[in-house]
Specification:
alpha/beta, six-stranded mixed β-sheet, two-stranded antiparallel ribbon
C-alpha cells in the first residue's frame, strides 16, 4: 500500500485556525472574545520570568495555565491569585509557545492606552519574552520574534509594535532598556510599521 509523502514545509499552512503552526500549543483558560469591530493592528512586546531573573523552569507556563503553586517561592505571594495570559511566549532558547488563539482576547495588557485607543487587549497580540525587565535578551529570541511578527502581519493589518511600557507607562516598564528595538526596526524597515517614539 502506497504511503503519502509528508507535505513539504513550504506548503504547510502557517496557521491552523488561530494557532500558529510553528509554535508549541498550550491552551490557557484566560481569554475572551474580542469586540466585534476590533482591528488587530498592534503587537505588544513584554518580558517575564518567574521568579524574576530565573530562567528555564515551567513557572511562566503554570502562571498562564492557572496552575502555579503560590507557595513554591516567596515572590509568588505578590502575584497570588493572578489570572493572566499571553498569545505567545518565547524562551531564552528561542522556543515559541502559544497559549491563546490569536482570534481571542488574551489577558496581557491590563489597563492600557495606545494609538488613541484604550483597552489594548481588545485589538492586540501579546508576546512575552523570557527575561528580566531591563535586562538583555538572546539572539535566538529576537530571531523568533521577528519571524512571528512577520507571520502575524500576513494575517492581520499590524501597523504598530510597542512594549508593555509604552501602552501602560504608569504601571509597567517591560521589556525595558535591555531590549534592542533596532532589531525590529531593521526587520520592518520600509513596511510602514510604526514604533514608539525614541525606540
Amino acid at each position: 500500500m502506497a504511503t503519502r509523502s509528508p507535505e513539504p514545509a513550504a506548503r504547510r499552512p502557517a496557521w491552523h485556525g488561530g494557532w500558529y503552526a510553528n509554535a508549541r500549543r498550550m491552551d490557557s483558560p484566560n481569554h475572551g472574545p474580542r469586540p466585534p469591530q476590533a482591528s488587530v493592528d498592534l503587537i505588544v512586546v513584554h518580558s517575564i520570568s518567574l521568579p524574576p531573573g530565573e530562567f528555564g523552569g515551567d513557572h511562566v507556563h503554570r502562571l498562564f495555565m492557572n496552575r502555579l503553586d503560590w507557595d513554591a517561592h516567596p515572590y509568588f505571594q505578590q502575584i497570588r491569585g493572578l489570572e493572566v495570559s499571553t498569545h505567545f511566549f518565547i524562551t531564552r532558547a528561542g522556543v515559541l509557545w502559544q497559549f491563546v488563539d490569536v482570534g481571542r482576547r488574551a489577558w496581557h495588557a491590563g489597563r492600557s492606552h495606545y494609538r488613541g485607543r484604550d483597552a489594548c487587549n481588545d485589538d492586540s497580540i501579546g508576546v512575552e519574552l523570557e527575561g528580566l525587565e531591563g535586562g538583555s535578551f538572546e539572539q535566538a529570541q529576537y530571531a523568533t520574534l521577528v519571524t512571528l511578527c512577520k507571520a502575524l502581519r500576513q494575517r492581520y493589518p499590524v501597523r504598530y509594535i510597542a512594549g508593555h511600557e509604552h501602552i501602560a507607562p504608569e504601571r509597567k516598564h517591560d521589556p525595558g532598556p535591555g531590549f534592542d528595538w533596532r532589531v525590529l526596526h531593521g526587520a520592518f524597515a520600509g513596511t510602514g510599521v510604526l514604533f514608539p517614539p525614541g525606540c
